[in-house]
Amino acid sequence: MLQTYISNFIDTANSGVRKVKITGHTIVLNWNTRASEIINDLLYSESKGKEIK
Q: Is 29 part of any domain?
């Protein structure tokens, strides 16, 4: 649901006069006890931009 909201927000913003430029951000959904492990994987991963599940 949050992912859908964010996608809709970006689509709506991009359809207007101003474009929304979003790069270099990471969103972690379903924050839980593995969150710190996921964040460390993202920070120290050599393959940036890949999805970590």
A: yes
